[in-house]
Amino acid sequence: MLKAETKATELIDSQVTVAILSRTNYQEERLNLTRKLAHTYNKICYITTNKPYFTIQRELEENGIDKRKFSFLDATPSDRPIDSDIHGNTIVIGSPNNLNEISIGFSQLLNEIRFEQAIFDSVETLGLYLDWKNVVRFIHTMLSKVRKTSSHILFLTTGTEEISKELYVFADKVMNLSDS
User: Fold this and answer.
1) Rg (CA), the chain
2) DSSP strand pairing (117-121 vs 44-48)
């Protein structure tokens, strides 16, 4: 939505941002924020727990977003073995409940690709597979890695009660796009 496009300019000034998206317009708002970030940054790491990386790549292409700017960390459920698999600029973990592998993959992309911006889509998915205490510890670990660099990270969420209390504490900025 237009509101997501307008507020996306606020992302540039914050190293850690949480964007609360509406459930009904989640995909559209996610794509608008991604488009805005792709206009601003040349190296973006897209961490997906919802859709496989090749689906995200296709969506980027269909929406005129340069997919060459993106590296992917795919932690979507898969029938493949849980061991991480590397495809060019993509690391496939194959399971959102393997936080250790996600963390290792994130570090690898952070150190090798040196991305400027990361997008985490979405934190709520981790809560379907894991205890929230473990998810919060994992997020804290990721943020510690980001804060040691000049990179930025955007967490996409629908603002559920459980995640809100924990995630907002870590953020430099919380953008509520759900009331659009």
Assistant:
1) 15
2) parallel
Q: Where are the domains of the chain?
A: 2-176
The pLDDT tens digits along the chain (180 residues) read 445 444 556 667 789 998 889 989 999 999 999 999 999 999 999 999 989 999 999 999 999 999 999 999 999 987 654 445 556 788 998 888 899 999 999 999 999 889 999 999 988 888 888 888 898 899 999 999 999 999 999 999 887 766 667 788 888 988 888 764
| ω into 122 cis (within 30 of 0) | yes
Q: Which residues contact 151 (CB under 8 A, 6 or more apart)?
A: 15, 110, 114, 115, 116, 117, 118
Q: What Å distances lie between residue 127 and 48, 54, 96, 116, CA to CA? A: 14, 23, 9, 26
Provide the CATH number for the domain formed by 2-176 in this structure: 3.40.50.300
Q: What is the DSSP letter of 149?
A: S
Query: What are the distances in angstroms from CA 157 to CA 9, 84, 120, 124?
Result: 18, 25, 9, 7
- pTM, two decimal places: 0.89
